[in-house]
Write a structure and sequence with these properties.
The protein has 261 residues and is of the alpha/beta class. It has two domains: 110 residues, Transcription Regulator spoIIAA, CATH 3.30.750.24; 88 residues. It is built from seven helices and six strands; from the N terminus they run ββαβαβαββαααα. It has a four-stranded mixed β-sheet with strand order 1-2-3-4, with helices on one face. A two-stranded antiparallel sheet has the order 5-6. α2 links the parallel β3 and β4.
Length: 261
């Protein structure tokens, strides 16, 4: 008997994930594996996480990242690299960056994360703007008959504990950044401010209310759905908006005077 035309049919769930615009290529190099990354490392690059982990699993001591062909990298793509670094630490391995593009170098510079991907056994990255290698330590000269003494070098930072802490801090910063960006958009739309002024308002209100920036962002996002914003936050936001408007008065922002009668 044919099935009625009105019978329930399974619904297809729409895939709203962004497309992956990046690729990786693994090249074994002894006990390590070189991973050449290409394309755009944004939120869609999370699809590559399982591939990164598989490459790490098959390497003896870790992987070396070549990011010279990465045209774009934001916090979503950077989170993928941080996750790989954390997984390597859990396995007793290392992840280094051997080269990077200007886009990646900018992100590493802004986050101060370059040292997370450099070990005492790896060379400095070769990308543009990479710091030059320091002088090779040698014997300290002395008078004739003096036994040369090699100058003692500073000990490298305590790798596991300190790097784990820094990775956690960076991962937390990357997770909270999208909410902060949304909050900045809310301030821009609500008060007619530019991106820079909206950022100043958020930072000022955060400091004056002793509220972490990402917590303030969550409160503003909650207001969109009807949640109440604390009165102190409202007052400090209003004061910060008034201040940036007062300091940022420019001819192009002034209202056009009404026509003469």
């Amino acid at each position: 008997m044919p099935e009625p035309a009105h019978s329930a049919q399974p619904l297809t769930t729409l895939d709203t994930r962004p497309p992956c615009l990046a690729t990786i290529e693994a090249l074994p190099a002894g006990e390590r594996t070189v991973v050449i990354c290409r394309g755009e490392f944004d939120l869609g690059a999370q699809e590559l996480q399982s591939e990164f982990y598989a490459v790490l699993d098959h390497s003896a001591t870790g992987v070396d990242l070549d990011l010279d062909e990465v045209r774009f990298c934001d916090c979503g793509g950077f989170n993928v690299l941080l996750s790989l670094r954390r997984e390597a630490l859990d396995q007793g391995k290392t992840v280094t960056v051997r080269a990077y593009s200007p886009a990646v170098g900018r992100l590493l510079e802004l986050t101060g994360a370059l040292e997370l991907f450099v070990t005492e056994h790896s060379a400095r990255p070769e990308g543009p703007g990479a710091p030059a290698a320091g002088p090779v330590p040698g014997p300290v000269p002395g008078p004739p008959g003096h036994v040369p003494v090699v100058e003692e070098q500073p000990q490298p930072m305590d790798v596991d504990q300190e790097l784990r802490l820094e990775v956690d801090q960076l991962r937390r910063a990357m997770r909270t950044r999208p909410a902060i960006d949304v909050a900045r958009g809310i301030v821009m739309a609500s008060f007619g401010l530019g991106a820079e002024d909206a950022w100043t308002v958020l930072v000022t209100a955060s400091q004056n209310t002793n509220t972490k920036l990402h917590e303030l962002a969550q409160e503003l996002m909650g207001a969109i759905h009807g949640a109440a914003v604390p009165e102190q936050v409202q007052q400090q936001m209003a004061a910060a908006v008034a201040k940036v408007r007062e300091q940022g008065q420019r001819p192009d922002r002034q209202a056009t005077p009404p026509p003469a009668a």
